[in-house]
Design goal:
The protein has helices at 11-20, 26-37, 50-59, 119-122, 131-147, 169-180, 200-209, 224-230, 233-236, 239-253, 271-281, 306-318, and strands spanning 66-72, 78-83, 89-96, 101-104, 108-110, 125-128, 156-159, 192-196, 214-220, 257-263, 286-292, 323-325. The radius of gyration is 21 Å and the shape is globular. The strands form two sheets. The chain has a ten-stranded mixed β-sheet. The chain is α/β, with parallel strands linked by helices and 349 residues long. The chain is built from twelve helices and twelve strands. The chain has two domains: 6-59, Orthogonal Bundle (DNA polymerase, domain 1); 66-348, TIM Barrel (Alpha-Beta Barrel). Bound molecules: iron/sulfur cluster. The site of iron/sulfur cluster has 12 residues, from helix 4. Residues 111, 113-115, 118, 120-121, 162-164, 197, 338 line the site of iron/sulfur cluster.
Length: 349
Amino acid sequence: MYFKDIKSLSHEELRRFLSDNGHKLYRAEQIRVWLFKLMMQAYEGLNVPAELCELLKTNFRIKSLREEIKTESSDGTVKWLYKTADDFPVETVMIPTETRASVCVSTQSGCAMDCVFCRTGSMGFNRSLEAGEILEQIINVHKYFSKEKQERTVTNVIFMGMGEPLMNLEAVHRACVCLHDQKAFAMGKGRLTVSTSGIAPGIAELLDRNTPCHLAVSLVAADNETRESLMPVNKRWNLTELLKAIDNYLERSGEWVTLEYILIKNKTCTKTAAENLIRLVKPRRCKVNAIVLNGNENPELQAPSEQEVNEFLETVRAKSVQINIRNPRGRDILAACGQLASIPCKAAI
Ligand code: SF4
């Protein structure tokens, strides 16, 4: 397998590359400390023989993304627009709270899934990212913290930026393994969340590969007709198939699954929609994260009123279904859910 970014290689692959080229195996560990503990983004200063340094330089990039625009929201959320070496846009969002700093990473440039409420979907698909390009987004946030002298560190990584993670499962798996690796980022499994729009076979594959992550599924709507009108993926894997995959995941992993639900006026925030959601969630070890739809030009897709949201939540909670409403973050810089589309917003101009 050929990678352009050195961070995409697993420990084993790096060792094989070194041994194939006549170098000592222990150098692999040394290089990985340079990449993932010290988070260096140049080969200069790497304490290996000059010949090995040259070999790495001619075979692998150590830095893949160049920063184009950085915008900061009034609520502290920061969004970066990067370009890949072949000039495709990638966005990363850092969402701070008092105790956490979560990074929402992109796994593809653009997205092919075409969800109607999502700006990324409307920009089309460019290409999938390498594991190294995904990891570099997290490294860049670490670097931002140290440059800004913020005494913070990345506590959580959410694979929910541009792209459908399970359509790029190999790279996502590699990134999760590296983030979880004690000798690299050393992040607990519970701090890594992979979110899918509903690629049912990919959910099973996460388990087969033993990918260290928590699973979130963008349920969005709890009946086939509404879901299909909002997410074309539902035509390929409808709710019956998706729920089968979720049930299998719940059974095999013994964990909880998070369901992301979008509250849309007259569609998913009605009494009937609440009853559908209760019916779906009640028998399962799932908790629901509800998000009020972010601003959309489509008149069919509007946010419900506060009263409608409250009534919906009351109906669902009355049946003891665990539902949290997620505060939208970074709306003013188009960094909130479904808003990533490499469009510079006013704050950046
Ligand atoms: S919501 Fe996610 S899966 Fe759907 S188009 Fe947007 S980025 Fe792609």
